[in-house]
Putative methicillin resistance protein
Amino acid sequence: MIVKTVSNLDKEAWDNYVLSHPDGIAYQLFAWQEAVKKAYRFQPLYLMAQSKNQVKGVLPLIYFNIPFKRELISLPYCDAGGPLADDPATETILLRQALKIAPSAKVVIRSTRSFANLSPDKTLCKQKVRMILSLPKSSDKLLNSFKAKLRSQINKGYKNGLTSIIGSTNLLNDFYSVFSENMRDLGSPVHSREWIFSILKAYANRAHVSVVYMPDGQPAAAGIILCHPKVVSIPWASSLRRFNTSNPNMMLYWSFLKFAADKGYPEFDFGRSTPGEGTFRFKKQWGAEPEGLHWADFSATEFLMGRFNRAAPEPLTPNHVRIRPLAESVIQKMPLSFSKAFGNMTRRYVTL
């Protein structure tokens, strides 16, 4: 067994392994680190384990170097990355190699499952779950499986004259106009337009944008999906509050679910939610079921001694609890141009 740091020459072998692995997800594809490098300038450390010229495992990591913090994250800006290998022993070898290369860095792993023979009880994230919907072979079967109330909510958009289009970079401007305004209204720094463009370019035909339009042509809801043969993931979805009565958000999600079912994808990942909160209930109504996320962080010494911390989904210090509502209020009051500029300056430093 050898472990190597991969280069662009290894992209095909890397992606073939991720695409064929039963636990693979779109975030683990080579494209994620290409987008991170292009848009946010953080450098990757992508490790590959090989035996007899056969790939046995991969570990995608991004160096997250900012003042007073040095981390290797798998992966930033999404729910999950983590090691992917033929067996837990290979996952352990990959993690040890990462810690050997960067012994002073904290390693942060976000995974959809337990990994490297670490106790799943200790890595299981108690605050967040991912919401997974098993898809039938066609959108007709999927629609018929929904309760009458849900079908009525989907149909309301059509009755109100809304339309949806699925595309790619041709819809970037409309997507970003919805996305940036919604993030401002939520009080959250928005990803840069360059980041979204880099994702769409790097993922090519594995990334799709959907935009829902009002009858007068105004974009009212928009989202992006990333496709792996085993599961479709939706990292970003937004709708504008002023159009809520027309249900554009329901049409947006239906456009993606329809696409995924008709293309033969077996599962749809609605993304992470906090059990019991509004987004959790929204995803639950589609039939999605919660699955655990396994997040942990550790130093080289902690990993070798079998000690590690369960990584919180976001800082939960007393100062953070006090400051966050104030920060959200400030962003919400910004003109849209200001909130975009603020996001361009700050969002790259927020790892989720």
User: Anything to note?
Assistant: The first strand starts at residue 2 and ends at 5. Confidence is low (pLDDT under 50) at residues 315-319. The chain is about 40% helix and 30% strand.
